[in-house]
Amino acid sequence: MSPEYSILKTLVYFDIFDYPLTRDETRYFLDKRMEAGELDTYLLRLVQENKIWQHGEFFSLKNEKTIADRRLKGNEKAAMLLAKAEKIARRLYRFPYVRAIGVSGSVSKNFAGEDADIDYFIISKANRLWIARTLMHLFKKLPFLKHRNRHYCMNYYVDEAELLIEERNIYTATELVTLRTMAGNGCMQKFFEANNWAVTYFPNHRLENSENTPELKDGWLKKSAEFLLNNRFGDWLDDYFYRLTTRRWKLKEEQQRLNTKGERMGLKTSKHCSKPSPAFFHDWFLEKYERRLGELCSKWNLQIEEKPVYP
After folding, report:
1. Domain boundaries, the chain
2. Separation between Cα atoms, residue 180 and residue 249, nearest integer Å
3. How many angstroms separate the CA atoms of 94 and 21, rounded?
4. Residue 110: left if φ>0, alpha if ψ -120 to 50, beta else—which one?
């Protein structure tokens, strides 16, 4: 794979979000190993050829300085939201059966727009995901959180029984390598180990090592609730919440309901996971990425290389 092609793939991905990258960030998200000095040589050449543009420390496919200014403002806001997210995550960890909480989405990548959400990735105890999720979403509906919903977007759940993410592509790999652990009992590290396939996409990157994240102790209320539900009734209740939520979200999809951002609402569910439906952003984004990449490969006179098959 040519170095120019790897650089183009990286910049195209983030260009869709109008997010210019630093030299180090570009290197982290390359799909081939490359030393910093070697990357500098190629970046300088591409800038001189007017294929990419440099705005201060940032590189972009757009000759627009405003996106660099936008990024800097977004970085400042993201820093504030990350500090807030850590406090919220410690609060959410108190819920029964919650085993780890991380932050994903744009905030995990150090950017927050004017209407940015804080997206949480949550791991639950095996076969208790739907009890944990239901209790957390009932909490989110409390009146005092009415105007702070954007800080409580608990939209992706997996449980300890199935830590492996089934969708393996550049989008999910990017989300994995940028996921930030906020609270947990150590099982987030098992999640990263189970999904080490992501580094195949980004050989210059590492999945976060969450072993240094302070482990939180379970409070008496959490322990008591789990004690009361670690039985057949708990099994039935988790299945009931799974079926109920699946039916409700299937109806929303059939009605083509939109969220507050005007996006289609959809949820992909199983006994061991609850996540946004890939069809309503994930697949759309990948199609746009492939199309944009193809256009620029033609413009740069680069051959589109076959996608490698990852284990």
Report:
1. 3-63+284-300, 71-280
2. 28
3. 37
4. left
